Amino acid sequence: MDNPSSEGSAPRRTLRRKAVRKNYDENAMDEPIETSKKKFKTKQQLEKETETEALIALSVGFPIDELLEDEIRAGVVRELGGKEQNDYIVVRNHIVARWRSNVRVWLLKDRIRESVSSECEHLISAAYEFLLYNGFINFGVSPLFNGYVPEDGSEGSVIVVGAGLAGLAAARQLLSFGFKVVVLEGRSRPGGRVYTQRMGGKERFAAVELGGSVITGLHANPLGVLARQLAIPLHKVRDHCPLYNSEGEVVDKAVDSNVEFGFNKLLDKVAEVREMMGGAANKVSLGEVLETLRVLYGVAKDSEERKLFDWHLANLEYANAGCLSNLSAAYWDQDDPYEMGGDHCFLAGGNWRLINALAEGLPILYGKKVDAIRYGDRGVEVVSGSQRFQGDMILCTVPLGVLKKRCIKFEPELPRKKQAAIDRLGFGLLNKVAMLFPSVFWGDDLDTFGCLNDSSIDRGEFFLFYAYHTVSGGPALVALVAGEAAQRFESTEPSTLLHRVMKKLRGIYGPKGVVVPDPIQTICTKWGSDPFSYGSYSHVRVGSSGVDYDILAESVNNRLFFAGEATTRQHPATMHGAYLSGLREASRIQRVVNVSRGYPRKPVQRYSGVSNDVLEDLFKRPDIASGQLSFVFNPSTDDPKSLGLVRVCFDSFEDDPTNNHLQLYSILSWEQAQKLQELGESSNESKLTYMVNTLGLKLMGGNAVLDTCGALISVIANARKGRSRTRVVARQ
């Protein structure tokens, strides 16, 4: 390692040595067989790589030159502020970047040792353990993770209340830590406020989002990680969003630009005003301050400009799921510094694909509405109807709206401070009308378009439309209803709502000569009256602050824990915030168990590698063999999507004195293997082309397949010996 610079510049970071064996890159098919071409990196290259890794770690939430408070509490270094801390940060950033480069593969500590100096062994262990048990690496739904989850639940038992994103994330993480887990869900499905509904029939259908819909910011977003692990395409929500007035005309660009500029300037002025007001700013609403400033600065004075200004207000109410008259002028935007960067995206096929993958294999009991939660020194108990569930700890992930309604009786009662925070925070409403049409009459090039309303009180009614035709499988539109309009929406007949939204659509497209057909099917949400949510998502209400999110996240007596979007100060009102809160609480529960033991946690024994002999032994008895191709699968499951391995044997070269065959491998599903079999007597070259170009399989060498697929190889080998505990499901 280099010594700190004496030139007055920042200390240099640890220089890592060349890796012994390069890890497989899923984006480069033939990289594993070209590792011998890799050159030693120069000092300058390593320094540049270290800077890049620091930026990746920064995007995940780590400061560039400091430790997180959790790292300090965990004692990852012996002395703060010195060279050891500097070296630890480099190692930590390297581990984060290394896993983020291929999130489908479980990153083993041995892989880190290949690329970090042996002088840093204690730092490797400290950083790896911290990142692993705090949910920064090796989380998610990759099928290749199955071999690393312990089969025994020796760490204790946890009851998770709620199978939304927070509950699912926590349950999976706790299982991977070695806990016994049961999830109680009041609904008949997982996902909570993330709800994808299939509309239509066999001939024309679409998957639309009735709840959480957009992945807001792809950079370092854990939901983006899940999508990568499942190979689900993401569609960027395009920036073009035309606004139409009540006559169906596109709003003049100059007027639109001027009003938007004025609106943003007023938001800047709000920040200045609250600075001058100090603590008094928390006693007034954002709506009050904005209207006062609008009048003072003469913004949107005529009626047309006012309609456009109202549209921006409605969009602000949509972003916060609350009326501007309720939002705190002081703290409504307290989470802005933590926004995820990058594009906003739709998930192809719907968010249910993430939800189903997270729920797969978890012990979830549906239809279990929780009536009471009891906690004490001897453990916890959850009451659901006539049933009782007992465990060591409880993780409550129900929405803030349910806590506000006091639907669950806590025994003993929640601390006054926590109950006060629950009462102070806001929990607003966003409703939708989802419509499936016979055709895409609005045009293929739009993901969103907006509509102005004639009166301020109706500004949030159908003010924005999301077009799902690019990702849903059919011509679907979703109309959003925000603010006061969302509240009135709840008590309005669906037929009346449909009449209004169709009148608006025909008012836009009719003057253009476009015939707007009647929808094939429509769905109106009513999240405010849903007994398992009583609203949509949280916001900082007048009198509240970001501190209340932290209070909601606090555990009670190390027995009762809380997760969900309303427990994260940095990422409230987002799907990724809910997911991250689940990872956070799983780590917190693990730490509590460690402290109660009085000694550090003994690491769960995980897979540490298989030898080439195991791989060779598998292919001595392949499940399918055809020409140069041979396949092996897990014999204990009939799932058509279960993963296995294919080996491709190439003939030896004439001038090769060893007469060895070149062998390449790839991961594939049973379904993909069947498709290859359907090619029949096609040439081996044709099958290989089909594998790579049509199925998109990535070929890798023997060393790479051991690195990448070691857990899968181990699972298949153990299953052949009759030791697998995989659940059997029917192949279709």
TrEMBL record:
Residues 47-148 form the SWIRM domain. It holds the Pfam family Amino_oxidase. Keywords: Chromatin regulator. Residues 1-39 are annotated as: Disordered. InterPro entries: Amino_oxidase, FAD/NAD-bd_sf, Flavin_monoamine_oxidase, Homeodomain-like_sf, SWIRM, WH-like_DNA-bd_sf. Belongs to the flavin monoamine oxidase family. This is SWIRM domain-containing protein. It comes from Brassica napus (Rape).
